[in-house]
Amino acid sequence: MTPPIARLVIGCLCSTWLAAAAPVARGVEPESQPATPAVTPAVPGTVDFERDVKPIFAAHCYECHGAEKQKKKLRLDVKAVALRAPLIVPGDSAGSKLYESLVTTNAKKLMPPPDEAEALAPGQIATIKAWIDQGAAWPAPAGATAVVASAGGVPTLAGPDVFMRPNWHVILVHHPIALLSLGLLIEMGSFMWRRSAVRTAGRWMLLLGTLLAVPASLSGIYAYQHAVGDARGTWAAQVAASTLHAEQWEFLNRHAWVNGAVTVALLAVVVAWVGSSDLWRRRLYWPFLLFMALSMGALTWGTWHAGEAVYRWGTGVARVAPPGAEPERTTRSDWRAHAEYFVPPMQAHLALTGLCIAASAVALALSVRAITSRHPDPALTLTGNADTGFGTDPDAVAALAVEQSNAEGAIAADAAPGMHDPGTWPGPHVPPAVPAARFWVLAALLALLTGVAGLWMVDTWTWAKVRGTLEGAEIRPKAHVVLGAAAVLLPLLLAVVARWWPRKKVLLGTLSGLLLLAVAAQVWVGILLMLDTDAGSLTKWNAPAAPAAVAGR
Questions:
Q1: pLDDT tens figures, 500-527
Q2: Residue 332 forms part of a structural domain
């Protein structure tokens, strides 16, 4: 073998060995090394998306960032979503997060994850780099469109990637409105049947309508983002990329703020009503009824704006693609794909959060009711022997008890919902035991299910991944995990208090206050994670990014 041929053979063998070892080496390098992009070979000629880039995305990316699943809220199968800075900056691969994630030496940020999928070959990385540097041209495939515009100009996915379209909010929102409306009409006409089962049913409707308004409102966060558009990134970037016009923004914002505020106010007032003693229910009956009427009016006004945004401009409504022009989708057939089709993890997470808050509100009201409905003064019982001004005459004590129970019984309620009118009690009013502890346990179980749905949503099922989130640099995911754990533990502690120390007002108030703060903070951080990004402050939205300079423009 001549020396030139020998050198050529040795060079080819070395290149093959280095190419085979590169993925392994990239996956095990220590994290302390700087994230310097690896050198990728140049790709001659023009890169075609359909021929060169899309097969790489389909083989390595669509499983986690496609139609069936969107980790980190990223999709690479939809042009309008993928071609957003800083994920892909046309003409600037060095400024594109996609290319950076392919060549980084940080194993935690490397894509695809080394422990989940095979790394891209250097030639594939070079193809993606050249495609971005050449302007990231992404022509629409013949006979199909991945994104269509709604009547209001909002880009929305045309394909049925979930069972309930466009989202759960349009279904959940109707139940509380119907229950509250009918319950309020029955209560306002209750002068015709003050002690009727119809009135009892009406008050149950008011209670259930208020509680169901909470998951309906939280599911509205998902619907709001869906209406804004398909862009991802910071909230400022999504607003800038949205095609909503001024009137659409005005109507959507009125709907969101008014209905959200009314839901919070209704929950607070109904909790106060259920937790009050019978005497205070009688005193506050007319203010309560007036507040319910005003709240129903405000709720109707806010809902009208959402309906008008849909029917006037088609906000958030996807037009159905014609036959043969449906957008392409991945064809996952595992059980998780089928489950997520019927129960989208993000929407399930939001709905369960609302149910958890509603159960906690009922549990708090019943805990307060357990205190306000019992009289510590023994003179108010037939066996009491304290000096009440009537001496110790049993007949006088009984007369006092009957007088008070008559005053309380006009708008009285039973132990659990506090919603029906039993009328006048024949003797002293000794309410039955209030099962507050059971509702605290229910709230804890719902919080646990909410956490499971959250782990399902981000595909974090192992303790190693949870620990990675806690040890990561982003503060928002860490805060969300910690607050979620508090939302499970605090109701369990309150269940213990309600079961064995139901009259410890200070302890009940302290734990309830901590739970209220944890829930409020959890909802706020969840909104930041959903509408903004994982990185950023806990107290404000990320600022708009400066426009990136694009080569050749």
A1: 988 888 999 999 999 999 999 999 999 9
A2: no
